[in-house]
């Protein structure tokens, strides 16, 4: 009886240890191209401007965290183009002066070298309650660069 209880207790302890190890692994890791757990999606735009075939090559998405008081942008390649990019870019611009124009250096940029195959970013900016513009660009192979993001010249998502 003592051996059975000890073995059962040992099995319970081993199972708990195994669960602890498993939960400390990938379950806590951010998904590819994620801003973090406290960030919520605000807006997403297709990256399609300039595409000769009329298709969206991906999306550029804005996120906001009320706890971190920051905004984040990520450009993602559409599933059918994953691994085919030769250029991928994301930028986040902040209207810090409230004058609805870019005054520099209020930007976060992940410039797209060939190493970005699935997503570019995340780029972060302290922009709680400030208006932003965000943009993404993708080139598939030798095709022209395709752009997307907030409408040109518009400062948006001011919450």
Structural description of this entry:
With 159 residues, this protein is mainly beta. The protein has 1 helix and 8 strands. The strands form 2 sheets. Strands 1-2-3-6 form a 4-stranded antiparallel β-sheet, with no helix packed on it.
Q: Which bin fits the share of residues in helices?
A: 10-25%
Q: Helix- and strand-based class? A: mainly beta
Report the biggest beta sheet as strand number plus sense, adding barrel if it closes: 4 strands, antiparallel
- In total, the number of strands is 8
Topology pattern, helix = H, strand = E: HEEEEEEEE
Rg is 22 Å
Estimate what percentage of residues fall within beta strands: 35-45%
Poorly predicted runs are: 1-30
Number of contiguous helices: 1
N-to-C CA distance: 64 Å
What value does the average pLDDT take? 78
Overall form: globular
User: Strands of the largest sheet, in order across it?
Assistant: 1-2-3-6
Quaternary structure state of the chains depicted: single chain
Comma- or semicolon-separated keywords:
single chain, mainly beta, four-stranded antiparallel beta sheet, 8 strands, 14% helix, globular
